[in-house]
Amino acid sequence: MDWNHIPKIELHCHLDGSVRPETIIELAKKKEIKIPSYNLDEIKEKLIAPEECDSLDEYLKRFDLPLKVMQDSESINRITFELLEDAVFENVKYIEIRFAPVLHTNGGLSQEEAIKAVEEGILKAEKYFNIEANIIVCCMKHLSEDEAIKTIKAAKNSNCKKVKAIDLAGGEDEGFADKFINAMDYAYKAGFHITIHAGEAAGWKNVIDSIKKLHAERIGHGVRIIKNKDAMDYVKENNIMLEICPTSNVQTKAVENIESHPIKKIIDYGIPVSLNTDNRTVSNTSVGKEISLCSEVFDMNTIDFLKIYLDSVKYSFAEESTKEKLISIIEKNYPEALKYR
């Protein structure tokens, strides 16, 4: 079934994991950046992760190549624009793009400049296409808390209206939250929304800690809560959304295989979820593919996806006026969605 007709919302999409392979080659040639090959098939092989990686760390190695060509404002601007262009063709109406500005400073850019480059790409795309986007700024877990605070200050000092939230991304150790309490306190007091990668490569306790200690309003992935009923109850009772990325979760070993993915069990438990790509290029996926996968494996139907997208609007970091517009778009296309409002 073709799911392109459904208006979609995406809340978990990494910019550097969603770069067109052709663009990497073009930018490398233009900027005289050395890359392993200029052959498209060979570059795709370097970019796209295996269906089953050994671990999250192996999956994350696929970001090394795109980051080589994302060290100047022009390139970052272009890649942001192209991501939104790709999303438009899937009938995505709103998307939250996340990236770690600290990873884009090797060529002399400041973190503020990197953030502004992403915003400029968004604003340009919004003029051309029927889509809206916002930015989630990522701090990296493998760096110090001081570095996280620097990134949060850069997000604040950039004065970019598109920056709505702060995230902690990267490899996941047990108990990582204790390392970033002061940083996330600072982000919270600065008025940023907060979403945290947790319960992906490590256990469900990280999800609880992210909510209790780091002010998380949403959790990136969080699939390991399925292993503990108290964790499921805590997430549900605190009205926390899980940003689910089925294909990526299989690749990173967050789940053993797609058949054992807990997305349907989590939804049936009453926990709100969004359905996302995580990394369009690295995971070789699209929102449409993720919908088709859930439809085929879990027998989810149009009503299920409408509920997911209405919840995605509700828990998005968009302005209220944007939320109302998005709800109107969904309800206009699907009157049966009114009963979920």
From TrEMBL:
GO biological process, one term: hypoxanthine salvage
GO MF, one annotated term: adenosine deaminase activity
InterPro entries assigned to the protein according to its UniProt record, in alphabetical order: A_deaminase_dom (IPR001365), Ado/ade_deaminase (IPR006330), Metal_Hydrolase (IPR032466)
All residue ranges annotated as the Adenosine deaminase domain in the record: 7-332
EC number: 3.5.4.4
Keywords tagged on the record: Hydrolase, Metal-binding, Zinc
Pfam short name (any one): A_deaminase
GO cellular component: cytosol
Domain of life of the organism encoding this protein: Bacteria
Reported cofactor(s): Zn(2+)
Family under the similarity heading: Belongs to the metallo-dependent hydrolases superfamily. Adenosine and AMP deaminases family.
UniProt name for this protein: adenosine deaminase
Lineage summary: Bacteria, Bacillati, Bacillota, Clostridia, Peptostreptococcales
